[in-house]
Amino acid sequence: MEPFTCFMDVENSRSYIDELYSEENCKCQEAIVCLKNAVIGSNKKKGSIISQGIVPRLIALLCNAGKPLQLRIDAGIVLGSLAKGTESQVHSLMRFNIVEVLITIIFDPSTNERLMEACLGALQTIVQYPFAPLDLIHSDINNIKRLIQIASPRSSFACQMYVVNIFVPLCHSSHQQKSLCQAEVIPFLARLMICDNTTLQVPALKCLAAMCFTNKSVSNIVHATYHADRSILDILTALLSRTRDVQVQLSASRCLTYLHRAGSLPAEDYRIVYKTLPCLARLCSDEFEEDTRATAAETLAYLAEIDSELQRLAAISNHLIVSLANLVKCPSVLSRQGAFRCFASLAANDEEIRKRIIEMDGLMEEVLSGLKDGCAEDHSVWRPLMDLLSGEPSLELQTVVTSTICNLLLEFSPAKEPMLESGAVEMLCELTKHPDPALRLNGSWALMNMAFQAEQHVKTKIINTLGTDRIFQLLGDRDERVIMKTLGLLRNLLSNTLHIETIMSEHSSEVLRAVSLVLDDPHPPEVKEQAIIIIGNITAGARDEDYVLQDEKIVKKIRDFLVANDNKLQMGAVFVVRNLLEKSGRQQILRQWGFLENLEQLLRMTPQHSQFYEDIRDEILRFEYSEDH
């Protein structure tokens, strides 16, 4: 205990600190042990050590191969402990090129394994910070390969654990993901995923998920990779089992979610429909920790975001809506944010699901209690929300607030009219221009909800304020979710016969050009399906003009979609044809365009006795009926 007592005066006793600089190894060792024991868990002492200029001495001891091994190891441990301090303290370490120092020792083939562990531990802590110089590792693909060698099955458990945790923040950009892939990180991660040790499995799964996120080329490689005669997809699916650790289940479900959203796994794949979605819905239930439930809700929101069938399945899965309603009541922002995003995702395309969510007993009251202002008689949520956005809120606060606004702007919300009067349309239209994709998404999403079953004057104000040029820009957004919500906005604007005629009489060329833009671009079927629904709405609601039939390009697209290799596009095209045939005289025009021929081909492609088969046959019969009459 005496050395530790001696250290307690380190802030005031320069003579003690001088022992760190002693050439007598035993004195130096004694001082550094005291130092190591004292800085653990104390940011104040960490700050004191850094401010007194001791870091360069610790680095010198760490790098000096002539010093005793234990002294060098303890110096590395102290540096690692300092790296667990405040962000400003870590910035101070950066000024001494700490990452370069650690990498040099780690990549030295002669480094002792225990010293290696100390340096890897310090490096693992530092690279978690967003300002860490990760390019020092990514600058040479051999650095990645060397780390994989260091974490071989023959190495210590600590080395494997530190290396896989180092990889997690190294794979956020597409360039970094590609670099890790080229260095054969995926087989390394697969080995750890099947090791039955949660400490190694969870970071391995997190790394794999980060590599797959919005990266189709990497996701395709993961899809095709096998380890120990098992595909990675089968490994991930097995890790969703209830018998696995909860964090393993959650991390594996995120991997499969990102594989799906990157385009490597279709929405109808059994691993998505029967494994991933039910697992995430189950993890949202009250039996799990709050942070697990929040992450599961966020992940499920992303999984189902652009697929209406997944939204429908999720809404009836494992009492999910009740679980999310309970999650809203949790105190943390992340929990409420996750629940609201999942609610919004489920309700994106289905009015019945939307109504079920809003009518959940006590749900809106919970929102009000969490966000109402200090005025006891003002129980509306919109005013404090608008006040929050009127200043200079943080990006995180803006995201949470606008997510809540998305839910408040549905047709049956009492907050809708007063929010409109308070400049909500102008604020949301400005939000769609924000450089942050999450805020552009929330802006377009809230406008979509605002237009749902809205009065004509509300729709007119949205169109005039947003402008057709901005609609074109949103439909060309690099974030697919923004495109989906903008299409949802157009769909809701064009959802009433009178409103359709009014809007199309003024903006027909712009609306049809916007829809055509989406149909021409290489979007997935789920996106194009929304554009086709808009065309169907126009054909059903426009009474005075044949707007769609006047656009040869769109007519040809609809005709070709009848025989496309995708059921969503086929069903959408049949929906348009059905609406077109409601007005007499159009059958001959459609026959000349080749619609009847394609319908007959589609009928041959469709299983008999299905409802879709009957729908197609009905439209063919309408052609034949028109010939007889």
UniProtKB/TrEMBL annotation:
A Gene Ontology BP annotation from the UniProt entry: proteasome-mediated ubiquitin-dependent protein catabolic process
Entry annotated with the keyword Phosphoprotein: no
InterPro entries registered for this protein in UniProt: ARM-like, ARM-type_fold, Armadillo, ARMC8/Vid28
Localization (cell): Cytoplasm; Nucleus
Record's keyword terms, sorted: Cytoplasm, Nucleus, Repeat
Record GO cellular component, one term: nucleus
Annotated protein name in UniProt: Armadillo repeat-containing protein 8
Organism: Anopheles quadriannulatus (Mosquito)
Taxonomy of the source species: Eukaryota, Metazoa, Ecdysozoa, Arthropoda, Hexapoda
